[in-house]
Amino acid sequence: MSRHGLPVMLRTDGPDRWRIEPTGAMRVPGIVFATEALLPDLAADQALAQVANVATLPGIVEASYAMPDVHWGYGFPIGGVAATDVAAGGVVSPGGVGFDISCGVRLLVSPVQADDLTGRLDGLMDELDRRIPTGLGAGGVWHLGGHDELSALLTGGSPYAVAHGFGVDSDVDRCEDRGVLAGADAAAVGERARARGYGQVGSLGSGNHFLEVQVVSEVIDADAARAFGMHEGQVCVMIHCGSRGLGHQICSDHVRVMFGAMGRLGITVPDPQLACAPVDSPEGRAYLGAMTAAANFGRANRQVLTAAVRDGFDAVLGTRRLDLLYDVSHNLAKLERHDVAGSRRLLCVHRKGATRALPPGHPDLPDDFSETGQPVLVPGSMGTASYVLAGCQPGGAFFSACHGSGRAMSRHQAARQVRGGALRAQLEAEGIAVRAASARGLAEEAPYAYKDVDEVVATCERTALARRVVRLRPLGVLKG
C-alpha cells in the first residue's frame, strides 16, 4: 500500500457531499459524494489522501472526484474520477484506469421467471460452471489462432466476437461505444501482454469477478424499467469481468515507461503510483493506444461469455433468449468533450471504479435510452442486492456514477473472519446457489467486506449522479 500523500482536511459541501480544499500542490479541490457512514476511515484507508494526490495532476480541471463507493487503490482511489484538459498539457495516468483495464459489467434480461427455476437452479448453475472458465491463468472459451487474430480482436472488440459467432448483431447496439473504442494500437501491446491474452478470451478470472443469476426483486422507476424491458420476478444474468492478464500487463508496462519519462517531461507527483505523461506525448499516445486495445479485449471477453451463458440456458431451460440490456466499463480513460468554465474542451476523463452515466438526451446514447438515460449497472457484494440505475440530469463528475458497493475491508481481513466453507453454507441456507473453485477466494469476497450497496446507490440518487430503476436479488453466484 502506498503511503505517499497530502494531508486531508474534509469539510461538508452540501448534503452527502464533502470538500477537500486545495493545499500544497493541489490544483483543484477534492469532492467526495458520500454519507458520513460511507466515508473511508482516514486512519485505515488512504483513499481520501489519494483524492488529494490526484488533484495535483497537470491539466486537471474542476475537481478530483470520488464516488460513494470510494476506497483505496493503486495511485487513484477506486471510485475516483478526474479529467485533464488535453490542450493545456493534461496528462493521462495508468493509475487512473487501474490494472484491470475495461473491467465492467453487462446485464442480460430473459423471459424466464424466478418460479421457472424451481428445482432447476442447481442444474443451471452446474451447467454455467461447466461452460465458463474461472480462476487465474489461461482457459478461455475462445482460443485465438495467433498474432493476427489477437490483433484483429484488439481493434475489433465486441463486433469482432459477434462476427465470429459469439452473439447477435443487436448485442452491439446495447454496448457502450457500440462495443469497440476507436484508436486501438495493437502494436503498442507488448509481447508479454499478448502472451497472457491468447488463452483468456471468454473467461471470468478471479478476485471480485463473477457471474450472477439474479431476479428483479423491486421496480423503483416503473417507466424506466419498462423501457429497459424489466419487470418484477424476471430472471437476469450479470457478468462482471475485464481484460484479464493482457490488461494487467499493459498497465504494468506503461507505468514503468511513464515513471522513467517524468523527469524529462518536467512532471512531479506526490505518489509514484500516479506516474503520468501528457496525452499529446509519445508516452501518452502509446498508453492510450494500448489501453484502448485492452478495452476492446475486455468487451470481447464479456461478449464471448454472453454466448456461453446463452448456451447454458438453452441446455437447461430450452431458451437462448437473453437480451443484452447494456454493457459498460468502469476502468477507462476516455477522450470526451465537456463544458468547463464556459467553454467546450477536449478532456481525458479517467474513471477508475466509476461508471459513465449519460443523462437523457445525450447524443452518445442508443436511441432506446434517449428518454431514460443510460443504464448504470451496479453490482453489490456477493449475497446482497445489485441495482440498475439510469443517468439523470444534471449529472455530475463528468457524467459519472458509482460502480459497485465498494470494499470496506481488505481481502486479507475478510478471510480472517470467516472460512469459505462456512460462508458457502450460509449463502446456500439463504437460497443462493454458489459455485466457487476456491474456498479462500470465497471468503475474501464475503458480503460484510463491502459497503452497504443500498446506501451507496441512494447517495448517487440524492446527489443527482444517477437514479435507481430496479433492485436485483441473487439466486446463483459463479466465482473464480
Short description:
With 480 residues, the protein is an alpha+beta fold. It has twelve helices and 19 strands.
Describe the protein's architecture and organization:
The chain has 480 residues and is an alpha+beta fold. It has a single domain (10-408, 450-479), classed as tRNA-splicing ligase RtcB (Alpha-Beta Complex), CATH 3.90.1860. 30% of the residues lie in helices and 26% in strands. Strands 7, 8, 9, 11, 15, 16, 18 and 19 form an eight-stranded mixed beta sheet that branches. It has a seven-stranded mixed beta sheet with strand order 1-2-3-4-5-13-12, with helices on both faces. Strands 6-10 form a two-stranded antiparallel ribbon. A hairpin with a 4-residue loop joins strand 1 (10-12) and strand 2 (17-20). Helix 7 runs antiparallel to helix 8. The two termini are 24 Å apart. The mean pLDDT is 94.
